[in-house]
Amino acid sequence: MLILESSFKKKHKGKEISLYTMKNKNGLVVQITNYGAIIVSLYVPDRNGELADIVQGYDNIEDYMEGNGPYMGAVCGRCANRIAGGKFTLNEKEYILAVNNGPNHLHGGIRGFDKVVWNVIEFSADLIILEYLSKDGEEGYPGNLKVSVKYTITDQDEFRIDYSAVTDKITIVNLTSHSYFNLSEEGSGDILNQQLMINANYYTPIDQTSVPTGEILKVKETPMDFTFMRPIGAYIDTDSEQLRLGSGYDHNWVLDKPYGKMGLAALAHDPVSGRVMEITTTQPGLQLYTANWVDGEKGKGGKKYQKRWAFCLETQCFADAVNKPHFPQVVLKPGLKYYQSTVHRFFII
Known about the structure:
Number of domains: 1
Distance between the termini: 24 Å
Strand content: 35-45%
CATH architecture: Distorted Sandwich
Number of helices: 2
Number of strands: 30
Helix content: under 10%
Largest sheet: 9 strands, antiparallel
Structural class: mainly beta
Shape: globular
Radius of gyration: 19 Å
């Protein structure tokens, strides 16, 4: 059952919040709210043609506004993922950000892009364009940053996300979508037997606070090796320091493709439903997160989402890149344009 648009009608600080529904001819349905540019639902047919919502979330706008600690479905920014110590330096000036994840800054801070009302610039049956102006100094970041997110669905069962941004002062930007996927159906149980391939021979190990150490290590002969399709849970509970530090997978993979060029990031498959999700992107990294810290989160239809009932595949630059010059960079200067794209394509096997 589709989420009711009436359950998302609300005004927040004088701005209208709504729910927008897009459909293609094959039955693919995506629902977006302009609060946080959040992907509320994503309905995909299985091998029998039965539709199911494959992303976790909530039934109404109040639950997104008052909760959503896990960032379900949200666009994360101005800088997604972690920044060590909540600080960075640009042009010899240090910027101090909120520390909202242990000793680190996470997903844009206390009031990141997931907690603001975006302006709807265009909406039709197959696309929606959202814009937000992040003002100079917001959450400690420099520069007025104008951000646009365009969601599109096609009759080839593609769901595309295009991000763009411009600034009037040197700043940092790293945008990602934080959907929690369960290819069987949201809230239907754990995803440990769902299969995953990541197009990456290297990953960035983390320290005890989940920030990359700066090393770039091979995945071969480690639990991080997803170079072939295998169950997500095959090695998740093995005696591995990296898996202990993340309480499961919460790591970045270095994609085997040029930064800025569209290429394969991952394939995910649910043997039960037959659904396959292929992700291609222009981004250099992919963060796999196996919902390790979700514990009884209230979800759709009164469900209680549990640990490892979903997985996130967040295309982005590597965490803490601004403090690690050898990582692909997140710095944006005036006169230049930030532009990244990610495509989710669905099919059945």
